[in-house]
Structure formats: structure tokens, C-alpha cells
Amino acid sequence: xxxxxxxxxxxxxxxxxxxTGHAPTQAAPDPAPATEGLDAGVPARWQEASPPARxxxxxxxxVHWWQQFQDPQLSALIQAALDRNPDLRSARATLAQAxxxxxxIAAGGQPQxxxxxxxxxxxxxxxxxxxxxxxxxASWELDWNHxxxxxxxxxxxxLRSAAQDxxxxxxxxxxxxxxxxxxxxxxxxxxxxxxxxxxxxxETQQLVAWKTQAGLLSQLDQDQARQSAEQTRASxxxxxxxxxxxxxxxxxxxxxxxxxxxxQLGEPPHWPGTDELIARLQVGVPADLLRRRPDLRSAxxxxxxxxxxxxxxxxxxxxxxxxxGSLGLQATALKALTSGGAALVTAxxxxxxxxxxxxxxxxxxxxxxxxxxxISRASYESALLGAVQDVEDAxxxxxxxxxxxxxxxxxxxxxQRVVDTQRxxxxxxxxxxxxxxxxxxxxxSLQTSLATARTDQAQALxxxxxxxGGGWSQxxxxxxxxxxxxxxNPLSALFRNEP
Length: 499
Description:
five-stranded antiparallel β-sheet; 63% helix; efflux transmembrane transporter activity; palmitate; OMP_efflux; membrane
């Protein structure tokens, strides 16, 4: 091509200028200071663990902890929530958005190509002229000071935070479903207890009515029996409301309306052996939280993202260098562009932009980013303290629940024997009606307390699984492999005078 000798000297001159220029050598930003000292507040052991934990947390159990209850209905509800819950869909969309944003930023360090074309008509006095152009243009910002690389690292940290936020959403949703499920089952248990006691009270009421008609008891005895029966009947209405509202909560968590959930909740299985589950759970040591809790990992990634944003703000005060070039054809007739009659037009250039005076704006921006970084560190420390408290609270709740449930079970068994004996004595006329009714009310109260205690115990165990970071695995938050950072480009390294 006749025009190639003209373009070649320009190209080699530009490359020579790049290789012999006096660009300052810059090092990639060191991420170590971003999170230095963040984990200083992690205790060596759990205060409420009994006996003290010496083995790491059981990751295999924690990933799908709800399977430990061996309740197919609970597992189905949790799977429905993972598939349909709006909060989880929002977290997935946020992760996809972070992936796309990272790709956009990474693309900024790569050469940009375009194909401009134009047609113009000019008139000067009575003379007309036309000009047609078509070609290829390119531009490339050289990452000599790692500024684009720093932006990509900040985007990577934001992407990691979004992935861990998705894991956090899974951790929260699975726990919320299980807590609501056991609340629903506990209300059903108390409902069954109330119905059984109402049947017993109605038998007592009928017996008292017969004895009153026979003149063996007074109207006072009959009124007392009716009072106890009607009071229990009223509690059944309230329990029915509670059961319905618990079902509505399950529908919300699983991304459905109450009508869609109707008929899908079958007869629940036997109450799980939570005492045994508590006894065999390995809670590990506090340091495990830094690995298992996704909310902590997200907070740590936010600290790193803020650190890189601060570094990038400093780097934006340096000069920027961009290579530009174009290659095209130009002709005064459209047909000439394809018939060989067009002129070859080439251009190569180097754009330099160096902010010399900004009136203190750069220092203010750096101070602003530094404050944002300090805020993110404080947020991490707060999240860490909260995570430690979550585990300690759940540990003491599950530990004490075992003794509480065992004591209530023993008291309930004794109260049942008392009621059986008092009924026989009442039928024999050895005690009055008020004494029998008192023993029945005591039994109802203890049975209700036992159902509540078992419900609290199951929910405390669920919260312990959650506080240990259960409910997710790395496969659940997999993201696409990020593109290499722009600093991997060899010409950028040459411009930085790197080996």
C-alpha cells in the first residue's frame, strides 16, 4: 500500500517514546492495610459452650441443617422458600448486577474499537463539495499507575460482598421458615392439649350435672365446672387464630399467598428429638465464624471495597495517558470508497490529562473516602460482636432448654396422675368439684407450658444453626470467573517500566 511508509515511522516513533519515557514506577495497591486488625475482638472460646468446644464446627451438618429434624414437610417448605422467596430473588439480582458492573469496569482497561462513518456536504459561495469517510478508530487508556486495576479490585470486593449477601439471605430465610414452622407446630400442639382438656372438662361438667340433679352436688359445683369448660373453649378460639396466622407467615416466607398454601400442609410428624440434636452438635470455636458467617464475610469485603475506592481517589490525581489511532478511507464520491479511488487517512496520537490544580478537591475526596472506610470497619466490628452474641445467646438457650423441658415433662406426668386420682376420688364423693377442677387446670397449664418449652427449644436450636452460619454453601453463590485485571496487559507493564 502506498500510504504504509508514511504511517510506519509515526507508529515506531510513538512506541519508542513510550519505551523511553520517564513515567514513574507505580506498585499495585497493597490490600493488607484494608482489613488489618479487624479480627482482634474474636474470643478464644465460647463462654456458654458446655462442655467447651474443642473441635471445629460440623460444616456438613450446617449446610443443610434442617435435614437433622427428619421432617419432610419442613424440608419442602424451606426448599420452596429458596426457590420462590422475593428477598432471595432480589439478592440474586443484586449479585448479577455486581457481576455486570465488574465486567464494565474491567472493560475500561482494554482497547476500545469503533467504526465511524460520515457523509457531509459543504457550500462555499456558489461552489458545492461532498466528503465521505469510513474507517476504524481505536483508543486505549494505559494503566500505568494501576488506577484501572484498583477500580477492578474494588469491583471484585463489591462482587464478593454481593455473593455473601446472597448467602446471608439464604441463612436468614431458612432460619425464618424453620422458626415459623415450629411456631405453627407448637400452636397446633397447644391446640391439641386444649381440646383434650376440654373433652375432660366436659366429662366433668356432665358428671357434676348428673350429681346436681341427684341432689348430691349444688348449683355452685355445676357453675364451677361450666366456667372451666367455657374458659378452655375460649382459649381454643385464640389458638385457632394463632395457627391460621402462623400458616399465613409460612405462605409469605415461601413466596405464596395463604390460599396457595392451603391444603399443602399435611399432618406433621412426631416432634423431633431436639435434646439429642443439641447434644451432638459441634459448635466449633469463635474463629470459625469468620469462615462460616456470610454476613461477616460481606462486611469484610465492603471494608476492602472502601479501601480500594480511597486508593483509586488518590490515583485519580495522577496523569492519565491514552493511545488513540484511526485508519480510514476518504473520498469526494461515494463510489470511490469501494473502487480504489479513495485516499487512505491514518492518525496516531497520545492524549495526556494531568490535573494540576483542583482547589483542594482531591484532598477532600480522599478524606471523604477515608471516613467511609472507617465507617465500614466500624460496621464490621459491630457485625462481629453481634455474631458472637448470637451464638452465645443461642448456646445458653439450647443448653437451658434441655433441663427446662425435662422438668416440665416430669411435672406434667405427675399432674396427669393427680388428675386421674382426683377424678376417682370425686366420683366416690371424697373431694369437692373445685378440687378436681383445680387439678385439671394445673394439668392444662403444665401441658401448655411443656408444648411452649419444646417449641422454644426447637426454635433456639434453629437460631443456633443460623448463628453458626448454617444454611448455605459456596456452590450456592458461585459467580462467573472474573476477567483478568487490565494490569495483566504487557504494554501497560512496559509503560510503567516494569520488567
